[in-house]
What we know:
- By secondary structure, the chain is mainly α.
- Helices cover 82% and strands 0% of the residues.
- The chain has helices spanning 14-67, 72-104, 106-133, 139-164, 167-199, 213-222.
- The longest helix is centred in the N-terminal third of the chain and has 54 residues, at 14-67.
- 13% of the residues are buried.
- The model is unreliable at 5-9, 203-209 and 213-224 (pLDDT under 50).
Amino acid sequence: MENRVISTNPVLDLYTKLNSILYSTRAKRDGVALLHEHLKIENDNYNKVVIVLSLFTAFVETLKSNLDLTDKAIHGTTIAHASGIAPIFLTTIIGIISSLMKFKKFPERMEVLLKSREKFNSVIVKIRKLNEELNFKKIDDAKRIYVDEIMVAYRESLLEVESNIYPDVRNKYFKLAQKNIIQIEKDDIKFKDKLDKLFNNDTIIEIGSNSTSEEIELETINSP
């Protein structure tokens, strides 16, 4: 008996596929944004410390000059030595923090993340545009846009992120982004349910022509 293998091409459900890629792209875009936010906060904290120490160093220098704190005859040896060492100590701390900031390369890393986020945003815009026009385009044209534009941009965005963010960092922030998106969708569903209940309410509220805006708002709130 002759064995025959029948192969069929998989059916592409473009609408489902677009939504799947949309959520995947949103999660990765939001993960990149969360990492950027984390780096920005860390960079800002370093800058705040440097600013405070710089101002305090200037204050110590001014105080030392005006009160002549380095004069051992007036203030004693301890205060004279401390007032002389304090600005040097503070300046050294500022230099250490500034060196750490350069070592961590906050601006460069944040710039890379911004570029990655822009690429994901571009993919999201293309997906949403095709999704909205899906019913008005020929299926062959829609598939061509999906393959030649969306998937190409999507792959480039993934490569950008995978090349610049370590796997453990991606895992951490992508998980946070996925949780946020799930919570956003749950809140959106609750909001839509409340709107449906409001719009499907058959109770007619009669409002007099002389009613004020406060009265209208009160009647709306008190309606069942």
